[in-house]
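Project standup — Tuesday

K.O.: blocked on the structure for the chain from last sprint. Re-posting the sequence here as requested.
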Amino acid sequence: MPSPPLAASTHAAGVAIRPAWIGLGANLGDAPAALRGALEAIARWPGSRVVRVSSLYRSAPVDAGGPDYFNAVAEVATPFAPPDLLQALQAIEQAAGRKRPYRNAPRTLDLDVLLYGEGGGERIDTPALTVPHPRMHERAFVLHPLAEIAPWRVDVAQLAAVQGQRIERLDGRFWG
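H.V.: unblocked you, prediction finished:
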């Protein structure tokens, strides 16, 4: 069973460390390797650490075509404020060859800020970033891995609402 939500703490340099839940997805190239690479890059951020990671899931694209996606959710402890966190995630996407030719295009890597702050309860609404992620409750590929590592953030009704979406939890041979 997952541990309770990470509370904000303070880094040795006096900077607040805040929890964030990041959605990871990819459906082009070696998608599991891209997700592992993203987690390794996040773990190298100064003052940050990956707290926990869900199992790896395979799901059908939602509102898009292309091959199946590989997805996971990670809880990260980070000193980054939300805009800086988004910028750092987008830099990892760019390094992985992410292109944005059109909305919901297949991708080498997709990293989304799902939740931020103590218990995942902070609300952010700017032109660049909306948290909680505005469509997370419509997507099995977010809710299933999130429920695995942060069950207090997903309820039974939300899971029931996405039960028609094809999703498969993969064993460790794809992730480890």
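K.O.: great, moving the ticket to review. The chain has five helices and nine strands. The helical segments are 31-43, 82-95, 140-149, 156-161, 172-175.
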